[in-house]
Amino acid sequence: MSWMVWTMPTAIFFSAIAAMLAGMTVWEIVSPTIERKGFLPISTTRGDRLFVGLLSAAFIHLGVIGYTSLSIWLALAASLVWLLVLMRWG
Amino acid sequence: MSYQLENTQQGEKYNTIFSRTTPAKRRKRNARSRLRSRVLLGIYLLLMILPIYWLLNMSLQTNSEILGSMTMWPENLTFDNYIGIFTDSSWYMGYVNSIAYVLMNMLITICVALPAAYAFSRYSFIGDKHLFFWLLTNLMAPPAVFLLPYFQLYYSVGLFDTHIAVALAHCLFNIPLAIWILEGFMSSVPKEIDETAYIDGYSFPKFFVKIFIPMIRSGIGVTLFFLFMFSWVELLLARTLTATEAQPIGMIMTRTSTASGIDWGTLAAAGVLTILPGILVVYFVRNHIAKGFALGRT
Amino acid sequence: MNKVYNNRAWLLVLPMLILVSFSAIVPLMTVVNYSVQDVLGPNASFFTGTEWFKTMLNDPELQAAFLRQILFSFTILAIQIPLGIGIALIMPKSGWQASAVLILITLPLLIPWNVVGSIWQIFTRGDIGLMGWGLRQMGVDYNITRDGTDAWLTIILMDVWHWTPLVAMLCYSGLRSIPDAYYQAARIDRASKWAVFRYIQLPKLTNVLVIAVLLRFMHSFMIYAEPFVLTGGGPGSSTTFLSQSLTTMAVGQQDLGPSAAFSLIYFLVILLVSWVFYTTIMNMQKDKNSQGGA
């Protein structure tokens, strides 16, 4: 496995993603999602909103890293807020 | 659509009453428009064949004739280029290698894709839509992204420079494609067939092999055609994962350019030989191919 | 079709999942790991954080390659989609001619991509290629190794030659699914050819056209072997597309960190575009189903 050159931040990143997937599965089993329409132009399930949130978070990070000198933690905070908004009202 | 007429003759009569053009005139016009479309199609096919014809033309010439003068067809017909390829094991082994990994890939892919496609077409389960989308993203992931990790992954598990390595790597885009096509074909088989079979006491594996697979035969044929096509034409991954033992023909073809110039005749002959398996495969599925191209969804 | 809710279906999906994960997830994780480090050797790497991403996003050469890529993808879509529809409309519908035309038309799709490059390399050479020689005889100063415009036009021509058959075949299969009764009704209404196309054939084609646009966009976005063999990205870097910049960087220069960061950005763009397309297709099918049920 040494050729995969793991680092602590990437390990945390993938653990977080795995935990999210596991969490969503458990949540789905406990209370199945109902498709609904929020402020997004399409009707979405919980999983769809999570995906949209994560994808847009990736682009937020890219934008902050590439074209501003802001801290990456700011991007992370903004993404988390956006993700919560999306999950609640999306 | 309630007013539509089922019968053409009725329509014909309707037309003769209300239309100013006589049927004879109209038939003539139809014939003319059909002729025009045939001519257009002919021109397109001609232009399409031209580059391939040129390759064939060059493969039947000696290098001195190729470089010497512009000839529209081989004036001194020679098969030396082909003979050269078929008598040199380092050349023809390239074809054997390519065919070997393509066949392995087709076998592996169809075996795992059939049950998965059945699951997608008949059941809903937690995360099914997201799983399906994830599969499709693999179809779209550019192989260039994965090149180096692939090399290291297969190197570290000891599969580097084997046919199975290329076959497994091509699964990345072939399995999603196979599932996508097969799911379309399977969804057009009515569900009552499954239910009747289960009531008749068939177990799932028995039903699947004995009843279901024969019913989607043409779909499987078309799927195999697509698997062949995408595995046969891919070079980037195949080239990265092989060195000497399992080198694909596409890579061996680069040997024709040496310091003393390019061996055009051999290059052309090798190129022609890579087209032949495709023609053979498309001939077998010609009657189902139109449906398969819409991924079973028309 | 109403699907049965049953989580045991996961068992049927499992073998496929293991295989694809082996090929997709492990390499993807490795790419992510590379992208935050300066990898010098098996046991020598330094954590660099987000530096590579910053460099890649601001690299003028890559930005140029990206713009070229977009331009290329949209150009070939604008040519191939109408041309493919046109060819599908004039293809014979039945008989031995239909089979023969089908086999001929599919031919370019079954040629290995690097051989496609070789075919066009030979075909367009000024000394031994029919097209290059012919154009020179007509007095056109045609040279793809020196003139960037010639190289561009040739690559577009090659891609049109190579991939229009796919669009044509998709449309052909869409057209075959229109019942004859529709055409008869149109004949009775004395509809013009254009009206038949606009109100009968085109609506039926939308489904396959979305598939065609999706496949063509994705494939053109990762085009590598054909331009690599034909022009090698040149003259200069006028025909260097994204995949080639990436491969040169990763394999040629062994810059693992930057090329991994670049791969991820590339992958995110692809992911976004495919998600938009996929959602569109799914919503279209949903609309159709709800209309059918009503």
Unreliable stretches of chain A:
none
Q: Return the average pLDDT of chain A rounded to an integer.
A: 87
Helix content of chain C: over 70%
CATH superfamily of chain C: MetI-like
Q: What does the overall shape of chain A look like? A: flat
Summed up, the helix count of chain A is 3
What sort of overall outline of chain C do the alpha carbons produce when their principal axes are compared?
A: globular
* Content-based structural category of chain A: mainly alpha
* % residues in beta strands of chain A: under 5%
Q: Could you name the key traits of this structure?
A:
heterotrimer; A: 90 residues; mainly alpha; 2 domains; 3 helices; 70% helix; B: 298 residues; MetI-like fold; two-stranded antiparallel sheet; flat
Word description of this protein:
The complex is a heterotrimer of chains A (90), B (298) and C (294). In chain A, 70% of the residues lie in helices and 0% in strands. By secondary structure, chain A is an all-alpha fold. Chain A folds into two domains: 1-32; 36-90. The longest helix of chain A has 23 residues, at 8-30. Chain A starts with 7 loop residues before the first helix and ends with a helix. The model of chain A has no long low-confidence stretch (mean pLDDT 87). Chain B is 74% helix and 2% strand. Chain B has 15 helices and three strands. Chain B has helices at residues 8-18, 23-59, 63-68, 80-87, 89-122, 128-140, 143-156, 163-187, 191-199, 204-215, 217-233, 236-240, 249-252, 264-284, 289-293, and strands spanning 123-124, 257-258, 261-262. Residues 1-18 of chain B have low confidence and may be disordered. Chain C has a single domain (46-287), classed as MetI-like fold, CATH 1.10.3720.10. Chain C contains twelve helices and three strands. Chain C has a two-stranded antiparallel ribbon. In chain C, strand 2 and strand 3 (44-47) form a beta hairpin. Chain C starts with a strand and ends with a helix. The mean pLDDT of chain C is 83. At the B-C interface, helix 1, helix 2, helix 5, strand 1 and helix 6 of B face strand 1, helix 1, helix 3, helix 4 and helix 5 of C. Strand 1 of chain B pairs parallel with strand 1 (4-5) of chain C, so a sheet runs across the interface. Chain A: Pfam families: DUF2160 (PF09928). Chain A: Keywords: Membrane, Transmembrane, Transmembrane helix. Chain A: InterPro entries: DUF2160_TM (IPR018678).
